[in-house]
Amino acid sequence: MSTEHLLLVTGLSGAGKTEAMKALEDLGFFCIDNLPPSFLPQLTQLQALAEGHGRRIAVAMDVRGHSMFADLFVALDRLQAEGVRHQILFLDCADDVLVRRYSETRRRHPVQEGHSLYEHIAAERRMLAEVRDRADLVLDTTHMNAHALKQRLGRIVLGREVALDLDVDVMSFGFKHGVPLDADLMFDVRFLPNPHYDPELRPQTGLDAPVADYVFAQPETGRLVDEIHDLLVRWIPLHAAAGKARLTVAIGCTGGKHRSVAIAERLAQRLGERFSDVAAVHRDLPKNVAR
Fold it and tell me: Worst-scoring range by mean pLDDT, 71-80, 93-102, 189-198?
């Protein structure tokens, strides 16, 4: 991973700076859009705060700043003189693709020199030529969609593959409290014997060993967890490759207190052995239950 903690993102209008900043935010960056260059040296305190939390700062700057953009080189020279670690990422793109993107969105190009979009783009290229020459990283987005851009940024900025960077929540819930509207995948485990009908187990939850032992004493439970686990091991990479940042797997029983909780805990533990960001979430447990 690069040791530079300040990433300056610039480039041609329409080349994908907005999507790049969204991707960088997903990758853990603190993102600031359209910052006037003269404010760059004042980010030192914010940079130190971000480093303390293990994060980096990404700042997007482009010709939307008009005359203020001319201050960029002064600001860059000051960062260099003060020893502030930084990189410049320049996003480029073919002219015909830029024209198509502007034609589709019908947005006005920020550089109004000439009469056609091609003339506006040519004028912007001249304005940004020196910035491009000073860039540490130049990325051509001509043939990239948002998903491919995020993966490429992970490789060139973070130095690693981010195709499997996906937060997975395994959520227990009770059907009698309503289904979770944010669930991507949902499994109903109400066919399993219910510990609620055992007077000794009723006041306990799936976080307690006696309840978990009861639930997993049923042979169907182990097979169920195995099959859901194997399914998710195949499907999670596909969701991640499609650009999804979070996947919620809902496990439902009647009240969301016994069966679904025990199964969500076991499933999250199993998935955590294969994927880095997996958490068990218990929506309907009483507030006073300590995990």
Answer: 71-80
Nearest Cα neighbor of 169 from 232, 115, 81 is 232
Measured CA to CA in angstroms, residue 84 lies from 57, 75, 115, 127 at distances of 12, 11, 41, 25
pLDDT in tens, 119-129: 888 888 988 88
Look up residue 8 and give its two tokens.
């300056």
Position 160: which residue type?
R
* Cα distance between residue 74 and residue 139, in whole Å: 24
Which stretch of DSSP H or E encloses residue 97? Answer: helix 95-105
Cβ contact 12:98 at 8 Å: yes
Domains, the chain: 6-158 (3.40.50.300), 167-282 (no CATH)
Report whether 215 contacts 222 (CB < 8 A): no
User: Which of 200, 171, 195, 173 is closest to 184 using CA atoms?
Assistant: 171
* Nearest CA among 173, 162, 134 for reference residue 284: 173
Exposed e or buried b per residue across 85-115, where buried means at least 16 C-beta atoms within 10 angstroms of its C-beta: ebbbbbbbbeeebbbebbeeeeeebebeeee
Query: What pTM does this model have?
Result: 0.60
